[in-house]
Amino acid sequence: MTEKDAFLASFQKAVGQLIQVSMRLFWRDVKKRGLTVPQMFAMRYLYYRGESNISEIARELGVTNAAASQMLDRLVGQGIILRREDPDDRRNKKLTLTEKGRELLKQSAAIQRRWLEVLADNMSAEELKKLADAMEILAQRASELSDVGDAKHG
User: Whole-prediction pTM value?
Assistant: First the structure.
């Protein structure tokens, strides 16, 4: 096995395990809060993109405007997002995340961070240093590629 093959296998195994645990925590948190995964994705979309309209969120989720509107109505009713008319086009509704919505996302992220802290607590200082160094190298090399299409394929 080459160094590259060993890296690829190790990376895929580690990332797979991290994603599995992270997603399990995410699913539990979503269910506990009485939300759906599409609602959480819509909230995250609004968090990162800022003010958006129903069409943008529908397109991102791959659903119809009507389905997105119905889903978003529930979030409006729970005070998680705010819907207002676009002053330039009253037919267009602008959506933003409320402070309550931001707090829900912050709490969800904290759950996943706590798991990472427990993971780190179970490692030696030497292991933590090695992993931090490796993550820095990985982040640097990844940032050098603008997208997957730029990666050299062998």
Answer: 0.73
Please answer whether residues 128 and 120 qualify as being in contact, where contact means their C-beta atoms are separated by less than 8 angstroms. Answer: yes
Domain of residue 117, CATH code: 1.10.10.10
User: Tens digit of pLDDT for each residue in 57-82?
Assistant: 999 999 999 999 999 999 999 999 99
Residue 18 within any structural domain of the chain: no
Dihedral of CA atoms 141, 145, 148, 152 in degrees, nearest 10, equals: -80
For 13-44, the pLDDT digits (tens) are 999 999 999 889 888 988 998 899 899 999 99
Angle at 63 between CA 58 and CA 69, to 5 degrees: 55
* Angstrom distance (rounded) from CA 30 to CA 38: 10
